[in-house]
Amino acid sequence: MLLPYLKRIMIQTCFLSAWNYIPVNLENIAMRSCLVAFGLLLMSENNRLRAQDILRYEVRKGEDAVGWVVAERFKNGHTEHHIVRYEVEIRYIIKVRLKFFFECKYENDMLTYAHTNSYRDGKLRESSLLRWQNGQYLMEKSGKTRALTYSPITYSTIPMYFWPPYGLSKVFSERFGEYLPIRRLADGRYEMTLVNGNKNYYTYRQGVCQKITISHTLGDLDMILISSESED
After folding, report:
1. Which of 4, 45, 153, 224 is most buried per CB count within 10 Å?
2. How far is it, in rounded angstroms, from Cα 110 to Cα 91?
């Protein structure tokens, strides 16, 4: 019993030391992301108190499968960590390959950290970093940092895969750094309006997102749930 406990302590100590060593800025997001993924992998194997939920989606454009989405949720005490990755390949005159990475962390039901990356044909197109610091949110995007005048955020777009926005009229976007309007439709569906006026639609059953329809300049995309896993 003592050996696994000491092993967990050593992993936590090494992880936190490395995390604190890497400065928090956009240039180091990729390095910190790799560290988070590696740390979560080690902790999930060595800490049985952590629960991991995984949702897998197929992305379709019309009848064609064009990509995939994986949404993961990790829990450890009062901390909840979400990671969403997806990749899409669409032919629109020429073939376009899109990749996205979204991550957020909640502590005591409050959003304390988030970052997003989007790539097109292997090149980083957009990146954002949000963190809670000294009683306020700081948003870093396009090389500029600004303070957000929001009270503590308790719900945002990344966790929407795992629970619906019950009773809410707006949802915070980690990517845009602002709230987006949302409204409930019939049959467990929700409509969210993006900053450019496009609308995304979320369909839920038993508290889990079954389908997301995304408005995109290259055509509407449907993300359809194909499998789910839960490990306690």
Report:
1. 153
2. 40
Full residue range of the structural domain in which residue 5 is found:
1-48
Q: Same domain, yes or no, for 33 and 66? A: no
Shared domain for 57 and 78, answered yes or no, is: yes
Q: Is residue 93 domain-shared with residue 181, that is, in the same domain?
A: yes
Helix, strand or coil, per DSSP, at residue 26: helix
54 forms beta bridges with 72, 229
Count of structural domains within the chain: 2
Identify the band that residue 164 occupies on the pLDDT scale cut at 50, 70 and 90. very high
DSSP-derived letter for residue 153 is P
Of 20, 56, 78, the closest CA to residue 209 belongs to 56
Q: Based on the fold, state whether residues 87 and 23 are members of the same structural domain.
A: no
pLDDT, one tens digit per residue, over 15-36 is: 444 544 555 455 555 555 555 5
Closest CA relative to residue 101, chosen from 132, 72, 133, 66: 72
On the CB side of 9, CA atoms within 13 Å amount to 6
Please state the φ and ψ torsions of residue 42, each to the nearest 5 degrees. Answer: -65, -45
